[in-house]
Design goal:
Elements: E1 14-15, E2 25-29, H1 57-71, E3 75-79, H2 89-98, E4 102-107, H3 114-123, E5 127-131, H4 143-160, E6 164-171, H5 179-188, E7 195-200, H6 220-230, E8 238-241, E9 249-259, E10 262-266, H7 269-283, E11 296-298, H8 299-308, H9 311-325, E12 333-342, E13 347-348, E14 351-352, E15 361-364, E16 367-370, H10 374-380
Parallel strand pairs: 1-8, 2-3, 3-4, 4-5, 5-6, 6-7, 7-12
Antiparallel strand pairs: 8-9, 9-10, 9-12, 11-12, 13-14, 15-16
Helix pairs in contact: 1-2, 3-4, 5-6, 8-9
Bound molecules: iron/sulfur cluster.
Iron/sulfur cluster binds next to loops.
Length: 394
């Protein structure tokens, strides 16, 4: 399946060292209530039979502590449903921070206001992961038009400061031709956004009789080819593999260094490897993000890194050219921005093709299961044989 020349050779990349019990992320869902009805919601919040419930505060706290105990998390991702609807969100955020982890909130953004972000920041909020895409709006708009929404949220979050910001964009055949505009917008607005993540749409089974329709699915090679058409020299650094296919990549990341609306260069595999190893050595856990809050590097930091890592020498040269063109650039900082693709499981040989080292695992009946597969675990109680077999689902 993964045979496009746009897909990097797996042997040139760094395999992120995440495992079940040593993973920077803990996934905690705090509500099944939502104020949007996105088609294909992985938790079924758009379905008429969805029961909208907030998880009680005590239970959320117990989940957070259990995640800390078994996962060694750097961050806790609060998800749902729409977490901003939970009446105890501030207390939850504070509890996570008090337990020496960074609280991140996944949201559709509709309820975000400067006042709410300020309150959450005071409680300890470290990051927002905002889903903005045309598929959640029934294709009533385009990805390019939605850049104004991304801009609005980016400016709102940045005005408060110190909050890591990710935009999620779910993609299928309908909108993949438009994602170049999202990438260009991200590079132009590197001062606002840290991560930009594309996730191919997949279908969740809610009934054993559901028939999977994969006709609009896209795959890693589609994402790589699309992005290469806007960034021909793109280089990737790190990945997570598949639990099933030997050389498939489920997460693929390109950390790049941006300044003055252009990519100065790429932080290569050795940078990510050194960062993760040093982070684990000194902080005892792997990292989901680079540094506290936003991630910047000044010229001198880039120079020092480039002494040790050859990948950074190109970044240093590009930065130097910016200084030559305008000496005031010496006092600027470049942003470390990350492009990430996450390929959710399809079915391969009747087995669930999960990400090896899944960072988004959730607790279900005391077991860790991928949050994207929770509904199937509930339906089949882990009897994946019952899931219909078709090699086209990947
Ligand atoms: S297995 Fe599913 S939940 Fe886990 S990281 Fe992959 S896509 Fe996300």
């Amino acid at each position: 399946m993964q045979n496009s020349s746009a897909i990097p050779d797996i042997s040139t990349l760094y395999r992120l060292p995440f495992s079940k019990n040593d993973n920077p992320n803990g996934w905690v869902e705090i509500t099944t209530d939502c104020n949007l009805r996105c088609p294909g919601c992985y938790r079924g919040c758009n379905r008429d039979d969805n029961i909208a419930l907030h998880v009680p505060l005590e239970q959320v706290m117990a989940n957070v502590l259990e995640m800390k105990r078994i996962r060694n998390c750097q961050i806790i991702s609060l998800s749902g449903g729409e977490p901003l609807l939970h009446p105890d969100l501030e207390s939850i955020v504070r509890f996570i921070r008090d337990n020496q982890m960074f609280p991140f909130v996944h949201t559709n953004g509709l309820l975000l206001t400067p006042e709410l972000i300020t309150r959450l920041k005071r409680a300890g909020l470290a990051g927002l992961i905002i889903r903005v895409d045309s598929l959640s709006r029934n294709r009533a708009t385009t990805e390019e038009a939605l850049n104004s929404v991304r801009q609005k949220y980016g400016e709102m979050v940045n005005a408060i400061g110190g909050i890591h910001l990710t935009f999620l964009c779910v993609v299928n055949k309908e909108n993949i031709g438009e994602i170049n505009s999202v990438v260009k917008w991200s590079i132009t607005n590197a001062k606002l956004v840290d991560f930009i993540t594309f996730i191919p749409m997949r279908q969740v089974l809610f009934q054993k009789t559901d028939v999977i329709d994969s006709s609009k699915w896209i795959y890693l090679q589609d994402l790589c080819e699309q992005i290469q058409s806007v960034i021909p020299d793109i280089r990737y650094a790190s990945y997570l593999g598949s639990k099933v296919e030997n050389t498939a990549m489920k997460w693929l990341q390109s950390p790049w260094i941006v300044m003055n609306n252009r990519i100065l260069g790429y932080a290569g595999p050795k940078f990510v490897e050194s960062f993760q190893m040093f982070h684990h050595l000194f902080k005892g856990k792997y990292a989901y993000k680079f540094g506290q809050g936003r991630s910047y590097l000044n010229f001198f930091q880039i120079l020092i890194i480039s002494v040790f890592l050859s990948d950074f020498r190109g970044v240093a040269r590009s930065f130097f050219k910016e200084i030559i063109s305008n000496p005031l650039n010496l006092f600027q900082r470049a942003t470390v921005q990350l492009l990430c693709y996450i390929i959710p499981p399809g079915l391969v040989d009747g087995m669930r093709d999960e990400c090896d080292g899944c960072p988004d695992a959730i607790l279900y009946n005391g077991k860790l299961v991928p949050s994207c597969g929770l509904e199937e675990y509930k339906l089949f109680e882990n009897q994946t044989d019952n899931i219909q077999k078709d090699d086209s689902y990947r």
